[in-house]
Amino acid sequence: MASIRKRVARKQVRWDATVSKRGARRQTRTFSTKSAAERWARETEAQIEIGAWRDTKLAERTTVAGLLQRYTAEVVPSTRAAYSWECVSRKLQTSRLAAIPLAALDGEAVAAYRDARLRTRVRSTSKPPRELDRTISSQTVRHEVLFLKRAIDHAVREWGVFLPAGNPVDKIKLPRTAAARDRRLVGDEYARLVSAAMSVRSPNLVFAIELAVETAMRLGELCALTWADIDFETRVARIAMSKNGESRSVPLSGRAVAVLHELRQGAEAGAVLGNTASGISQAFVRARKDAGITDLRFHDLRHEATSRLAQKLGGDVIALSAITGHKTLGMLKRYTHLRAEDIASRLD
Predict the structure, then answer these.
(1) In this structure, are 222 and 278 located in the same domain?
(2) Which of 163, 115, 110 is nearest to 135 (CA)?
(3) Are residues 223 and 332 in the same domain?
(4) Of the residues 240, 263, 305, 332, which has the maximum number of CB atoms within 10 A of its CB?
(5) Are 289 and 282 in contact (CB under 8 A)?
(6) Positions of the chain with pLDDT lower than 70, given as ranges
(7) How far is C-alpha 154 from the chain's CA centre?
């Protein structure tokens, strides 16, 4: 039987609702209005009567921060791009969502986080950091919100967390998917970038840049590449596990083979580059700045490589997708940016 009790705490009226019914443990909730307390009591009793009630105790004592800490420790290390997801997790753990129990987390709180992040200005990497004249991209916020969704879904499936209203992330509108980037190297940017990379304190950065442009491999794939994956006789690099979860073989151009020979220098085992993805990314930013190049990311080199390969292969999308690992024509199109002047030259 349910009981509703009024109490005053810090000059604020609160209503305690208690449900005691056979088939479930005693439950108590506090509400700001009597009507909300009565509604919850009726719904809870009805669930117990039809056998649909489930214990929400774990969801009540687990905060968003606690969930993310466990998920990051137990699940994230086995995922691809673990380092990136750890960064996303840390960001969420320092947000206003962190202290909210999962049982109290609702769509309104997640939407407020989404909107606040979309208004946040990007901070520079300089010391001291300064705010830049642009906000965090919708794609970044989308990744953060979806990471939270995956963590909650995992807790429900694997850890016995019960949320009567379901995953609150499912109730909000996700930030839009970012428009495909079409950034390619122009003019003498490639030469300037390579020259600057030779002066940066990261001995293999220049090799990483050249291999990225020659093979269209992702940075993570390049860093995971070992000498056992390289077949110099057939001029093929074997990627055991790519971003899409499949292996693939990448044909090597003459220049790619030459770069690998220069890197090898007698090595028979171990990593080809011997660098972490984060280390190369940081070194790349320094080289880009030294070269006086703006708005260029390491991943843009994959765009550049895919577009160059598209020209060399004369429109053979099957061969192109086999090299790059794209599963659909739509995704391949996102990474292939042919210049209008290059296409025009074929029309003569």
Answers:
(1) yes
(2) 115
(3) yes
(4) 305
(5) no
(6) 1, 23, 51-53, 124-127, 178-180, 242-245, 266-268, 315, 326-348
(7) 16
Residues whose CB falls within 8 Å of the CB of residue 78, separated by 6 or more in sequence, listed in order: none
pLDDT attached to residue 322: 74
Crossing angle between the packed helical segments 189-199 and 205-215, to the nearest 10 degrees: 150
Catalytic residue among 114, 117, 142, 218: 218
Name the token pair of 90.
Answer: 């840390």
β strands within 205-269, DSSP E: 230-231, 236-239, 248-251
Residue 224 lies in a domain: yes
> Looking at 171, 205, 239, which one is the last position of a domain?
171
Q: Could you tell me if 209 and 317 lie in one domain?
A: yes
- Percent helix / strand / coil, the chain, rounded to 5: 50, 10, 35
The pLDDT score that the predictor gives to residue 56 is 75
| Catalytic status, residue 299 | yes
Same domain (yes/no): 207, 314: yes
Question: Would you call 143 a catalytic residue per the annotation?
Answer: no
CATH of the domain at 286: 1.10.443.10
pTM of the model: 0.61
Q: What would the two tokens of residue 23 be?
A: 């088939």
Catalytic residue among 117, 248, 288, 326: 326
CB-based burial of residue 223 (10 Å sphere; 0-12 exposed, 13-18 middle, 19+ buried)? buried
What are 26's two structure tokens?
Answer: 């005693």
Of 184, 248, 302, 303, which residue is the catalytic one? 302
pLDDT value, residue 133 = 73
Residue 130 belongs to domain spanning: 61-171
218 as an active site residue: the answer is yes
Q: Please report the sign of the dihedral spanned by the C-alpha atoms of residue 68, residue 69, residue 74, residue 75.
A: positive
> The CATH number of the domain where 127 resides is what?
1.10.150
CA gap 132, 134 in Å, rounded: 6
Which one from 71, 113, 190, 335 is the annotated catalytic residue? 335
Active-site residue 243, yes or no? yes
pLDDT value, residue 293: 92
